[in-house]
Amino acid sequence: MPHISSKKLHKDYLQKIYGHFMSKLEGASKKGTAVSFFEDFLTPTEKIMFAKRFAVVYLLSKNLPPSYIAEVLLMSPATIYRMSLNKNIGKYSHAIRSLKLSDEMTWDLFEKIIRMGLPPKVGRGRWKFLYTK
Known about the structure:
Blueprint: H1 11-31, H2 34-41, H3 44-61, H4 66-73, H5 77-88, H6 93-101, H7 104-116, H8 128-131
């Protein structure tokens, strides 16, 4: 779990730092060095959190049930429901718009990866986990 310092920055300083960070991030994406930029700044935990949040927004945009998303991404249902409520009030509209413009082949691969980890809904293998030690 990431640690956030209890010592808070003044709002003006925080806004300036955040604005500068976003402009550098935007510049990195235009130059094609965004991956390196994120590699330098994000810890492995932050990368996982960011990727999962991105996946949640995508799956919610496909109108999948929050309970299914929680099961697939191994996240708490409360987190998914909170993000679902935020989506319903329009919080992720820019992200969803950019997801719709992205390459469909990438998302097809993403969906296949997600479905590989799920047990079959019906059939012989459905209760297999109960019998394995």
